[in-house]
Write a structure and sequence with these properties.
About 35% of the residues lie in helices and about 25% in strands. It is α/β, with parallel strands linked by helices. The protein has two domains: about 140 residues, Rossmann fold (3-Layer(aba) Sandwich); about 170 residues, Dihydrodipicolinate Reductase, domain 2 (2-Layer Sandwich), CATH 3.30.360. The strands form two sheets. It has an eight-stranded mixed sheet with strand order 13-12-11-7-10-9-8-14. A six-stranded parallel sheet has the order 3-2-1-4-5-6, sandwiched between helices. Helix 1 links the parallel strand 1 and strand 2. Helix 1 crosses helix 11. About 50% of the residues are buried. About 0% of the residues have low confidence.
Length: about 375
């Protein structure tokens, strides 16, 4: 049976979703939707999509099985709730929402409707990330006790002015932490388990004339296991230095992955595990020139494709996607707690969320 898919929000990242769906057998990208109907029409023409519409009500007329949500962060909830009400499976761009209550409503609606709900954290599909996860799950590394995430990127003023919703608390939900470093928060939790307490500080050091959210942040994280981690994140660098996530196990073994330049496939730049081969540094002889945002998005397409293929297979088999709405809510809970800590100047607890129920498909 052909899976009929729609796409909501025709901005930059939508192209990755469209290309992924169109590369999969038994999947038809039927319609796209954007409040800017000119942009929707242009996207449909560029991607060979038969229908472009300007409202969700029009979108549901096309008998969809699934939908990708590529709208600005605060608009995710409206689309996800509408999809669940129509019995349509949902794959949503990160972050799942800008507050945990909204995310909880989205998860609950999809659970009640019996539809699959996945959230895009395509960096989990890097082979380097999965290699670390296997080492943890198989006991090779030992229980993770120490972690670090570094997100050191460049975003110029024109990045924030390109769309009116960017760089504002009410429409973007946050800055470097919410939009970029949430990927690395997700990886830390995937590797080390639930975060139970955070302390943080942030500031805006560049482009304060157009940017009201933070461009630089540091935080400490304490995990339910007793493990500890640090996080540094900034978009104020020139040039950007990419990202890294490092984990040390109770055995003393240490592994890490590095994404350099931003958007390229990460490699295990450290693999200090006795009895296993070492991984070489991805940095080569020195820095390379900055890459433009469209190039970063294009470079991530193979991993969007892997996650979207997982989402499609989850629908067909009745299992949960690898990254569920609840998993994405865990990362959001950490992000919002970090913001609360930076605002109050105190450490802030992070609520523990219940696990996802087994997805059984739509009857």
């Amino acid at each position: 049976m052909t899976l009929r898919v729609g796409l909501v929000g025709c901005g930059n990242i939508a192209g990755n979703h469209g290309a992924a769906y169109q590369s999969l057998a038994g999947v038809e990208l039927v319609a796209c939707c954007d409040r800017d109907t000119v942009r929707a029409e242009r996207f449909a023409t560029e991607h060979g999509i038969a229908h472009s519409v300007g409202t969700l009500d029009e979108l549901w007329l096309h008998d969809l099985d699934a939908v990708s949500v590529c709208t600005p962060h605060p608009a995710h909830e409206e689309v996800v709730l509408a999809a669940a009400a129509h019995g349509v499976h949902v794959l949503c761009e990160k972050p799942i929402a800008v507050d945990v209550d909204a995310a909880a409503r989205m998860v609950s609606a999809c659970d009640s409707a019996g539809v699959a709900f996945g959230v895009l954290f395509q960096r989990r599909f890097w082979p380097a990330a999965q290699r670390i996860k296997r080492a943890i799950d198989e006991g090779t590394l030992g229980e993770p006790i120490l972690g670090h995430a570094s997100v050191l990127l460049r975003r110029d003023a024109d990045y924030y002015t390109a769309d009116p919703w960017r760089g504002r608390w009410d429409t973007d939900g946050g800055g470097v932490l919410m939009t970029q470093a949430v990927h690395n928060v997700d990886l830390l939790q995937w590797f080390m388990g639930d975060v139970v307490e955070v302390s943080a500080w942030h500031d805006t050091f560049r482009h304060s004339e157009v940017l009201e959210v933070e461009d630089t942040l540091v935080a400490t994280l304490r995990f339910a296991s007793g493990g500890l981690a640090t996080l540094e994140a900034s978009t104020a660098l020139r040039p950007g230095l990419g990202t890294r996530v490092r984990v040390t196990g109770r055995s003393g073994a240490t592994v890490s992955l590095a994404e350099y330049p931003e958007g390229t496939e990460a490699r295990n730049d450290v693999w200090a595990v006795p009895g296993t081969e070492s991984a070489g540094s991805p940095y080569g002889s020195g820095l390379v020139a900055d890459v433009e945002l469209p190039s970063i998005n294009r470079a991530l397409r193979p991993f969007h494709k892997l996650q979207i293929a997982d989402f499609v297979e989850a629908i067909r088999s009745g299992r949960q996607p690898l990254v569920t709405g609840r998993e994405a809510t865990r990362a959001l809970a950490v992000v919002t707690a970090i913001y609360a800590s930076a605002q109050t100047g105190t450490s802030v607890p992070v609520p523990t969320l219940s696990p996802s129920p087994k997805f059984q498909g739509v009857s």
